[in-house]
RNA sequence: GCCCGUGUAAUCCAAUUGGCAGAGAUAGGCGACUUAAAAUCGCUCCAGUGCGGGUUCGAAUCCCGCCACGGGCACCA
């Protein structure tokens, strides 16, 4: 009879399996258990619905899906949801450019992306889908804003803020990069003085910083980035009274109160409010010129470190808080108005900046700290001594050292009423106002008599008007709307105006993971019970670009909601995996700097510019349209199937690392899955039936033992890769390949029960990675139910045991031979065997070794 | 300048955390099958782990000093 060979055809099989899963409700979240540890929350950072799924999304969601699927097989109740970060500028810009409706445009994109996502076979519970731009979601974003307002953590103030001239809105500090560019538009931001809404994230700065230590499931570098961003520094304020009016003081912040007696001058930021009062008549013109000049240069230039420090004397004097001596007051560009108190004490002997400044303007340098046990201070040091040490020239503080010196000075300052211990932060309050239409309206009404009045809860949501004019003419579209903002004051009923700013979209994404736990709740954003069951998220997966932004804001929300007793967890994300980028091969002509599309390159081994014939540079870069190096997930899925795409992405690189897209490797994965198909085909033809109940014989042949060993090695290794300290999908896939190689050579000749165990185990282990193929084969081989409803295989430690092991025989640390010995041999016998071996005879030349190192099961090292 | 990460075969990546540098894959070479090609199967070439020291019986792994690349922070008082 001819063989009934079948073909692996993902295009036919994958949609069919997906349909079955949907009918079975396989991805639905089970009722959570009361026992928290039975529940597992697997979460991907939700996407902005641009309408186009890209490879970065695929990598993100496939990683989370493997985790979700494997946890289900391990018997956990899994929550694995998906949603849309759907407010944002692209929708509004599309409206301006093409006259489309932002809501319709967004919904259409969501439908399109949901469709693209569904082709990947992700086990997502779509019943809990969350869309931040829909009133039934943003109603609760508004409700939460009112919680912040009620807690005194939301306030409006006039401040110098970052203005994005391209997107025509303000931005939070976190949304401006080190080069002063907007995270979205890339435009250099401008400074503007505006009245805006802020959330008081600084109120929990200490918790945000200190609790980083508890996040041992987070990458170290993300924790460091957050710590740097929060930037806590501990020190003191000292007050210097004005000479001409001792009731006024200049307050400085310093981390080195112990250097107080080394002050030669005080420097104010040019913007400091006391500058005018301090400036003498003689210095008026010079001070004015200097301030004028600073106005004309950009923030960037002013802050560039390599610039020489510049300043002018105000002609005014203050009095030293301890000695009462006159201290001249300067203004200088290196003192920033919005850090600390906007004023510093100049201690040139012990601060590099002050030292440079003092040198430049010939100001006195007084040494007041010397290194421990050192001699006399040098009169003309050539650099600042910035370490802590022993105080000299410091009156009653002489001889004190290090921290004790700092504390003594602070204590004395407090006692004399001239200073306080003080902690400052780099972190600023979160600016959440945006002058745009497509965002969540801030639920506040401004009344001339009552001030800023919160919209009563029963009037939420404050919905966006559907008929706002979006023509890009500048200014807030809500503000220009003829009627939307005109409402009566909820308190007094007089005509009042709605707040027309919308919220930063990061507000919407700071709590979406809580909504998933209780997505249909119409009474509250989420119940305490539902978050208690699921929170914190067990595994969060997303890009490292949110190391500060989203991840810091979400931690902030969590802490505030806990204080408000709306939530009972301290940190939202227990474990965090930051996946690397997906990069595409890029060809560039080094002389013209132009990117050449890979399709135009005839020989990828020796790439030449099709126009000029010049050789091209080849490298990998983040996929983008302008570089012509994007690979469309849809095309790949169409050609090879979702399982191949998933396998490739997981196998090609460790999850945190950047991944270089390579068509040849994709082919390789496709071939692997085809081999699996043929392997199963063979087993089926040989009559394998997974539902047949077979028992392992007590005596196994050598070959059977080897196959079982391979199976259980795979169970052990893959379990560790998926659930251990470090998630390693690439090695898990290679373990699967190893097992399949072992099976290919031995399955046909193995005892029936051993072969069945091997195939069954293999399919379950592979199921999280290639869910469609494995489910199909499971069915073809007569398995009961779906492969995804099975139990994760149990490790049989006995199967790993070998009768004999090969130990390495070293002489003086160099490998000189092997020894095949019983696995359970004791140390002494192993040593005897080693000494008696030919290798020992040959290399020791009859002399007894000085030392013998025996590592049981591994090696014997003879040291002559 | 400071902090973090990464350097292993032509390429992507492993290495039970101090124990034979190679598991897996891609590409290449050879062979089998084929009239031929593709597919498939089998075999196979290629590194002593970025560099220089050190600790150790033994180092990719630990320590010290460098280099390269990537990322973060940066006049923060």
Written overview of the protein:
The chain has 864 residues and is an alpha+beta fold. The protein folds into six domains: 36-132 and 510-579, 3-Layer(aba) Sandwich (Rossmann fold); 142-200 and 429-506, no CATH class; 234-424, Valyl/Leucyl/Isoleucyl-tRNA synthetase, editing domain (Isoleucyl-tRNA Synthetase, domain 2), CATH 3.90.740.10; 580-629, no CATH class; 659-800, Orthogonal Bundle (Isoleucyl-tRNA Synthetase, Domain 1), CATH 1.10.730; 804-863, Ubiquitin-like (UB roll). The chain is 35% helix and 19% strand. The strands form nine sheets. Strands 8, 9, 10, 11, 12, 13 and 16 form a seven-stranded mixed sheet that branches. A hairpin with a 6-residue loop joins β26 and β27. It is globular. The structure holds one RNA strand of 77 nucleotides.
Described by the principal axes of the CA atoms, the overall outline is globular
Uncertain regions: pLDDT < 50 for 5+ in a row? none
* CATH superfamily heading of the largest domain: Valyl/Leucyl/Isoleucyl-tRNA synthetase, editing domain
The assembly state of the depicted protein chains is single chain
Q: The CATH topology of the largest domain, please?
A: Isoleucyl-tRNA Synthetase, domain 2
| Number of distinct helices | 27
How far apart lie the N and C ends?
A: 67 Å
Into which percent range does the helicity of residues fall? Answer: 25-40%
Q: Measured on Cα atoms, how large is the radius of gyration?
A: 34 Å
**CATH architecture group name of the largest domain:** Alpha-Beta Complex
Structural category: alpha+beta
CATH class type of the largest domain? Alpha Beta
- Total discrete domains: 6
Instruction: Characterize the main sheet.
Output: 7 strands, mixed
Number of strands: 33
Question: What fraction of the residues are assigned to beta strands by DSSP?
Answer: 15-25%
